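Practice problem: predict the structure.
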Amino acid sequence: MNPELRGRLSPFRDKAIAEGIPAEDVERWLATARPCATLTQDEGEDGDGDGPVVGRFGGPLLLPADTPDPFHPFVASIDLAALPADATDLPLPPDGHLLLFAFVEDEGDFTPTGSGSVVYVPAGTAVEERDRLSWAWSDEDEYQETVEKFPQGPLRATVDVSLPYHSLVSLSEKPWVATLPGHPHSQELTDVWESTQDDIATSGPLQIGGYASHEAVDVDPVAIAVSDALAAAEAGRRDGAVSGDVSDWVLLADWHAWVEGWEGATVHWVIQREDLAARRFDRAFTSVFWNP
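Answer:
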């Protein structure tokens, strides 16, 4: 991570030490920081960024002729060539478009990729416009009303720094959870991050890379998505190797949807590191957290 981004964490460091957290524990936590790209909409919408336009919510659905119609509603497209250099620490392709799809309801894990999917369209690929409602079962599909409320419009990117929002790991027996290994003050540190984040990072509805979050973060949302992916594999709905080691996975994108009727829903697109390196975006897995 570049020195400028690390320097932006000074308010977090200062408050954590002022609250009595040992300096060595603070520095160990800061070492986990990751760069990310926060994507915001234009003035008047959720977010406060003013960076370059790198994609959009909605718009025409453009796919190669040999790509099947997506099973999930279209959310956003990201122009990877327009992302600022070093915006994330993910090995993303240098160009082309990343298309994100998802349902915002939290019971869509019956597909091999969970509640959503990802399509990568390499630069220079011939595309054609598709019906954005091709996923619907019929013209009367009641979910169409929800999808019509999905946000629309350009997305601007700001390079930010991200720290964990979660402080616990799940256990297979009582007490069922424990503090993050190697971080005995994880709860206090996440509390400090919550109280200082607005002074450090941009607020926006979509994030590329970094750490996942949702309204009730205790355990890493990526870990929850990995558990769902394993369950899909065990049920025979997902082919190929699925690692149960959370360190083998990364957050590709987070969407704090705030769609009418599903306020509080957060979509997490995750992917195994080896699949990302191989550009196997069809292997991404999507989970949804919703706090009604």
